[in-house]
Specification:
Elements lengths: L2 E7 L4 H4 L13 H13 L11 E5 L3 H10 L7 E3 L16 H7 L1 H6 L15 H17 L4 E6 L1 H12 L15 E7 L10 E8 L7
Parallel strand pairs: 1-4, 2-3, 2-4
Antiparallel strand pairs: 1-5, 5-6
Helix pairs in contact: 2-3, 6-7
């Protein structure tokens, strides 16, 4: 049996609803975001959240991820571990801005992200190489866990980076995955003993948004 890793993005916040980069900004879920993650808990496989389930739950320390974890796993009585390496990328001077505002204020810096390298960084923020290194540390800890099922409550950028890490994809694949608020990406890892990458497959990518009425 493969290790089933569920990569769960937090529900909507006021900032994400407005299309703003939140990154290190510690916003709570909005009322709509809370309703999203409660619905998400109903749509996940029942065995993950059953009493006594052998499911390891780990979350980013930012409150939107912690609240999502509590609404999904905490309500089922599962213990939630916090991992600082699952924080969203720090967007520096871009924190709280929309894509239009970034294009107007930082056109040269924004263009660099079309073909990023490990040294590519947000102004006064985190560089891509550092972000990848810390997410890789979190990935290694996930693989080292003995449980066959893991629920990871984190952020859109971290979900993308973990998908690429598990599947062995490079920078060019990062933006290929649309990661909506209150979404789940399931990765099946077939041999990842002692933190080794192993063979993996993306077996699902869906969002509560798919069930919401427009």
């Amino acid at each position: 049996m493969p290790k089933r890793v569920y990569l769960i993005r937090h529900g909507e916040t006021q900032g994400t609803a407005e299309g703003r980069l939140m990154g290190a900004t510690d916003q709570p879920l909005s009322a709509h975001g809370t309703s999203q993650v409660l619905r998400l808990a109903e749509l996940l496989p029942a065995g993950l959240l059953a009493p006594g389930a052998a499911t390891w739950c780990v979350a980013s320390p930012l409150q939107r991820a912690q609240q999502t974890a509590e609404c999904v796993a905490g309500r089922a009585g599962l213990t939630i571990t916090t991992d600082d390496d699952l924080r969203e990328m720090h967007f520096g001077a871009w924190e709280g801005l929309t894509s239009q505002e970034i294009e107007e204020r930082f056109p040269r810096e924004q263009a660099q992200w079309a073909s990023p390298t490990d040294d590519t960084a947000f102004p006064d923020g985190e560089c891509l190489g550092d972000f990848q290194e810390r997410v890789a540390r979190a990935q290694k800890r996930i693989l080292e866990r003995p449980e066959d099922a893991v629920m990871v409550f984190t952020h859109g950028g971290v979900v993308r980076e973990l998908i690429c890490g598990f599947l062995g994809l490079g920078h060019e694949s990062y933006w290929m995955f649309a990661v909506q608020p209150a979404s789940v990406a399931r990765v099946d890892v077939y041999d990842g003993a002692s933190g080794a990458p192993g063979a993996a497959a993306l077996s699902g990518l869906w969002s509560v948004h798919d069930w919401e009425v427009e």
